[in-house]
Amino acid sequence: MTLISSFGNLAEKVLFSSPTKGLVNFNLSLSAKYKSRQPMFKPKIIDTLKNYNKAQFYKDVIAGVIVGIVALPLAIAFAIASGVSPEKGIFTAIIAGFVISALGGSRVQIGGPTGAFIVIVYGIVQQFGVNGLVIATFIAGIFLIIAGITKMGNIIKFIPHPLIVGFTTGIAVIIFSSQMKDFFGLKMGAVPADFINKWIAYSHNLGSTNFHALIIGAFTLLLIQLWPRVTHKVPGSLIAILLTTAAVHLFNLPVETIGSRFGAVPTHLPGPVIPAISWATFQQLIKPAFTIALLGGIESLLSAVVADGMMGGNHRSNTELIAQGIANMCSSIFGGIPATGAIARTATNIKNGGRTPIAGIVHSIVLFGILLFVGKWAAMIPMATLGGILIVVAYNMSEWESFVSIMKISRNDAAVLISTFLLTVLVDLTVAIEIGMILAAFLFMRDMMKTSSVDHIDFSADTLDDEQKMLNLPSGVDVFEINGPLFFGAAFKFKDAMKIIGEPAKVLIIRMKNVPIIDATGIQILKNVNKDVAVNGTKLIICEIGSEQVMSELRKARLLFQIGKANVTDTFEKAIKRSNEVLSQ
What is the rounded (10 degree) CA torsion for 366, 372, 373, 376? Predict the structure, then answer.
């Protein structure tokens, strides 16, 4: 989180401090000021219910019912793909979905289990068991609350888009590959966790394909793709579940079902149990918990941004993070899995008229009703059907168009994208995010370094412009001009530039009008220059400091005091005047 914060601070300073950004910079600054005035925690439901009416209530109820129906098969499929029993996905959608809508910072956010968590949850369950997952989810909730309280909602925006696309596409590939056993009905043992070993195992067991399961899976894929031509009100995944479940039991087809693998599905919510967390357990699960929190924060805020774009709203990012944290803590207490904002379900909510958190609350109530009255029938759903549904989910979240587009735009972005994608698929999502952020930060700093330059202005040259010729620089004065950020990545340029000075001049002028930011390394270099030139009897003059950030940092470091107030001027002309005074002494 420190790396993300540092990277975000550097990016924000460059964006908001550069004098060359013009109107774009002005708009970004207004946006930053607007977000800084947002309350730390103020649920959107407080605002939306002030002028609430029956017409909107009717629209919210309709949208909530539709989204609840859409969420049911996804909640079951995500839970099973994550390595837990199907009811845990329903519990999560009910509990976390309700909390996210009631306390969240978005008017239309629909929360619950998502495909992005499948890889993380499966890995945690395999290594630490279901109890370890519950504890990790609870700790992740605490992390998200802390992130919201410390107002880190805006920092997450600095996570590069290629990194997000990279791990999202990687997760999609993993989800797709994890469904081959159920889709083809392969008779094999446990599927290996490693990506390459997984496909090797599939190839060895391809001869055990259950063609009944394959037909059901293929039918599910085809129906989900074609059903929108009939209606968008009822999801094709639900129709596929109803038809394939009926066919399996009417014709007694020999395929695996939820019941044959997991047993009966409970028809009630479990009692709340606060997980016992020892210090040893906390140390063991802090890394996976952090990954859950980071991914949950990213996806929930991305979903909120998409929702804002669809209906012209403004979400409260810090409130959203706090609500996500509370939702994950509540989900774990009731035996659920990690939850976050679901982009597809949120979009469905908006398209069907949902405009307030009431729609999300109704969606949770609908799911609770389904659990109570028809939950027992969920055990009859064929696993091949869920495999087909998750293959569609994987394709929809793959963002292959964005993937191809980024590959064509920039080598730096392509490097971050490919690295994150391959690490997600072949190694681990946590490692992918960490290395992706480090790589993106270094590439960003390299680009910033390229924009920095230190020029020695030779006033005896023929290349001077008219303004420089009119300044009539006195002899015995050297002038250097720094352009771009003076941070640790560009500091060596200043050192190299200073080496070209031959015989020490009486006065050294450094122009800093085009320096938007400076860091501790840049300040230390200026301090060293001041000491070095003083040994030779040279007076240092700094002029045209155009950035408030630079001026503030130089004051804090007491560098202006060391140089002397008279030797810090706001114009180059005054610097020359001061040079003449020094030369005459």
Answer: 120
Q: Rounded to 5, what percent of the chain is helix, strand, coil?
A: 70, 5, 25
pLDDT tens, position by position, 414-462: 999 999 999 999 988 888 988 999 999 888 888 877 778 888 776 554 4
pLDDT digits (tens, 9 = 90+) for 307-364: 998 888 889 999 999 999 999 999 999 999 999 999 889 999 998 899 999 999 999 9
Left if phi > 0, otherwise alpha if psi is -120 to 50, otherwise beta: which for 558? left
- DSSP characters over 48-113: HTTT--HHHHHHHHHHHHHHHHHHHHHHHHHHHHTTS-HHHHHHHHHHHHHHHHHH-SSSS--EE-
Q: Residue 37's pLDDT is what?
A: 58
Residue among 308, 345, 375, 329 nearest 106 (CA): 308
Strands 477-483 and 507-514, bridge-based pairing: parallel
Task: For the beta carbon of residue 39, count every other beta carbon within 10 angstroms.
Answer: 9
Identify the DSSP state of 230. T
Low-confidence ranges of the chain (pLDDT < 70): 1-38, 156-157, 458-472, 491, 495, 498-503
pLDDT, residue 76, reads 94
> Residue 476 — left, alpha, or beta (φ > 0 → left; ψ -120 to 50 → alpha)?
left
For 358-506, strand residue ranges (E) read 453-457, 477-483
Q: Classify residue 512 by its DSSP letter.
A: E
Hey, what amino acid is at 265? V
Runs of H (alpha helix) within 312-410: 317-333, 343-351, 357-374, 383-397, 400-409
Q: 423 with 431: CB under 8 angstroms?
A: yes
Closest CA to 137 of 104, 92, 172: 92
* Helix pair angle (236-250, 383-397), 10° resolution: 160
292: its two tokens: 């859950």
State residue 500's pLDDT score.
Answer: 62
CB 401 within 8 A of CB 234: no
pLDDT at 1: 44
Provide the b/e sequence for 258-271 (b: ≥16 CB within 10 Å): bbeebeebbeebee
DSSP-assigned beta bridge partners for residue 478: 508
Q: How far apart are the C-alpha atoms of 368 and 360, rounded to whole Å? A: 13
Per residue, what are the HEC states of 513-544? EECCCECHHHHHHHHHHHHHHHHCCCEEEEEC
CA-CA-CA-CA torsion sign (221, 222, 228, 234): negative
Q: What residue ranges in 111-211 does DSSP mark as E strands?
A: 111-112
The confidence score (pLDDT) of residue 425 equals 93
Amino acid, single-letter form, for residue 384: A
Question: Cα 482 to chain center, whole Å?
Answer: 35
